[in-house]
Amino acid sequence: MRLADRKAVVTGGGQGIGRAIALRLAREGADVAVLDANPATATDAAREIEALGRKALGLAVDVSDAEAVAAAFKSVVQDLGGLHILVNNAGITRDNLLVRMSPDDWDLVLRVNLKGAFNCTRAAARTMMSQRWGRIVNVSSVIGIIGNAGQANYAASKAGLIGLTKSAAKELGGRGITVNAVAPGFIETPMTAALPAAAREAYASKIALGRLGTPDDVANVVAFLVSDDGDYLTGQTVCVDGGLAG
Predict the structure, then answer these.
(1) Residue 203 a catalytic site member
(2) How far apart are the first and last CA of the chain?
(3) What confidence tens digit (pLDDT) does each residue in 216-230 have?
(4) Quick one: which of 25, 186, 208, 234 has the most CB atoms within 10 Å?
């Protein structure tokens, strides 16, 4: 119970990696607010957290909307009784080759993945600065480090998160707030589960450990970073990729 009495927000926490993180934080003792664009998955995740004996909120929020984010964080502080941890996980893809990518798809991915993290970090920082303690983790991607054909918008947004992480760490460190990033590699999701066996084997062959990761692999690292065990790490990017990025 490393996170007993802590209050956390996980964006994009209704499914996949975000949901695994939200549940892991709850198992470590935190009360958790799940912010997700899908109200049904946000509510469902909150119920699962409550079943673990923790307080939970499930809020439908577009993280790219600064006013909606500010209102949501105000509700979190009021209803959960504080805010200590923020995990910026919300993200989308709109894949296409660069020359075929529409400006709208470029803008949308940057708006959700990068501006969304900015909006949430700014909203959370005010509370964390006043209490002189906080933990922020941005969920980037190895694609933001190594790039990938057909994902210029996604790669740019995830690389941008690493820059945001480093800058915010320098700005907020003096107030007892750490800011780190995790960069997952190929993670088992419903999308990867639907891939043909040959494609999955091709992905796995690029990974030093020889297997795709799981959402819990990512959640384990996040739980460490937001606990007191990660107290002296800030401005770092941890690749949770089984050795893919090298």
Answers:
(1) no
(2) 33
(3) 999 999 999 999 999
(4) 25
Determine the Cα–Cα distance for residues 242 and 231; give it in Å rounded to an integer: 24
- List the catalytic residue out of 73, 118, 154, 224: 154
Which H helix or E strand runs over 111?
none
Count of beta carbons in the 10 Å neighbourhood of residue 174: 9
**Among candidates 234, 239, 243, 236, which has minimal Cα distance to 135?**
234
- pLDDT tens-place string over residues 17-48: 999 999 999 999 999 999 999 999 999 999 99
pLDDT band at 197 (very low <50, low <70, confident <90, very high): confident
Nearest to 169 by CA among 200, 135, 211, 192: 135
Closest CA to 213 of 56, 18, 17: 17
Where b means 16+ CB within 10 Å and e means fewer, 139-150 reads bbbbbbbeeeee
Whole-angstrom Cα distance, residue 168 to residue 205? 36
Residue ranges and CATH numbers for the domains of the chain are 7-188+215-240 (3.40.50.720)
Task: Give residue 195's pLDDT.
Answer: 72
The pair of structure tokens assigned to 191 is 């999308």
Q: Which token pair is 168?
A: 């915010």
